[in-house]
Amino acid sequence: MRRIALPRTTFQIQVPTLYRCQVCPTYHIRSPDRQSRVCLIKWCAPFLDEPLVQELFPVMNKILTIAALCCLIAVSSLTLAAGDPAAGKQKAVTCAGCHGVDGNSMNGEWPKLAGQHVKYLVKQLQNFKNMERVNNIMNGMAMPLSQQDMEDIAAYYEEQALQPGVADPALVEQGRRLYQGGNLESDLPACMACHGPNGVGNPAAGFPSLAGQHAQYLQTQLHAFRAMERANDPAMMMRNVAAKMTDEEIQAVSSYIQGLR
Questions:
Q1: What is the DSSP letter of 213?
Q2: What top-level class would CATH report for the domain 172-259?
Q3: What average pLDDT does the segment 53-73 reach?
Q4: Which residues, at least 6 apart from 240, have a Cβ–Cβ distance to it below 8 Å?
Q5: Contact criterion met (CB below 8 Å) for 17 and 56
Q6: CB 206 within 8 A of CB 78
Q7: Are 201 and 195 in contact (CB under 8 A)?
Q8: How far apart are the first and last CA of the chain?
Q9: pTM (two decimals)
Q10: Non-local CB neighbours of 151 within 8 Å, separated by 6+ positions
Q11: Nearest to residue 65, comparing CAs of 48, 40, 46?
Q12: Which residue, 13, 109, 110, 257, could crosslink 98 as a Cys pair with Cβ 3.0–4.6 Å?
């Protein structure tokens, strides 16, 4: 058998450099020609500076973690029967005592539900029913609800108009900096990376709308996440964020969010 010598071909693969984002908890990719840069989270696009250069391999595990989380969110999204807002209005009668007839509660201890995304509301009701989120009142309220009941109630509240709140003028600037840019010293990510510049959230990803929510309720939830008392956040996202926040930061950002509209 005759052997034929084949020419050797050399391939050059250029690996993009990763840059730490100063706005969100992820990394931007710049091509080797340094002509293009793409943010992994779209909200950061207007806020790109010249971040600290990171080596590729030490941060690959973080990139893979983010990718795995995105896959988890996508896979866990179930196709459910569409909720009926008219039926939900009737079923939500018992909810009105705390959350208001139209989902705008008058007491800062209880959250506003008006305008909240269906996906998020349904998940919270499921978590209350399954005791994955503990609240003495809500656990009992959610227990008898069927999946269709949850869908109907959530559809009703999503259609309601939110009544915005007002931020404390003394806390606006600090709250704005935290919400839009986080805290680089403590590695605290910006809230808007997930919840959007105006606090409307991301329905597809299951990130709730925060704009106009009671500052008192927001502070209570952030403290609960920080103390690990609330643990129904996917991949400990909110627990990890809240763990990096001081009491002062929680108060300031909660007040700022209350004033978003």
A1: -
A2: mainly alpha
A3: 44
A4: none
A5: yes
A6: no
A7: yes
A8: 79
A9: 0.72
A10: 80, 81, 82, 83, 84, 88, 118, 122
A11: 40
A12: 110
Could you check whether 85-159 and 172-259 share the same CATH topology? yes
Q: Among the residues of the chain, which ranges form H helices?
A: 56-76, 85-91, 96-99, 118-129, 136-142, 147-159, 172-181, 192-195, 215-226, 237-242, 247-259
With a CB cutoff of 8 Å and minimum separation 6, the contacts of 117 are 158, 201, 203, 206, 208, 209
Helix (H, G, I), strand (E, B) or coil at 50: coil
Residue 33: predicted pLDDT: 42
Q: Is 66 left (phi over 0), alpha (psi -120 to 50) or beta?
A: alpha
Radius of gyration of the chain measured on its C-alpha atoms:
22
Please state which of the ranges 6-10, 69-73, 165-169, 219-223 shows the lowest mean pLDDT: 69-73
Are 121 and 109 in contact by the 8 Å Cβ rule? The answer is no
In this structure, whether the domain defined by 85-159 belongs to CATH 3.40.640.10 is answered with no
Q: Go through the chain and tell me how many residues it has.
A: 261
Reduce the DSSP state of residue 253 to 3 states and report it: helix
Buried b (16+ CB within 10 A) or exposed e, 163-183: bbbebeeebeebbbbbbbbbe
Please give the Cα distance from 80 to 116 (Å, whole number).
17
Tell me which residue of 125, 160, 131 sits closest to 146, measured CA to CA. 125
Domain regions of the chain by residue span:
17-76, 85-159, 172-259
Contacts of residue 154, defined as CB under 8 A and 6 or more positions apart, other chains included, come to: 83, 88, 116, 118, 119, 121, 122, 125
Q: Is residue 219 within 8 Å of 250, Cβ to Cβ?
A: yes
Phi, psi (rounded to 5 degrees) for 240 = -70, -35
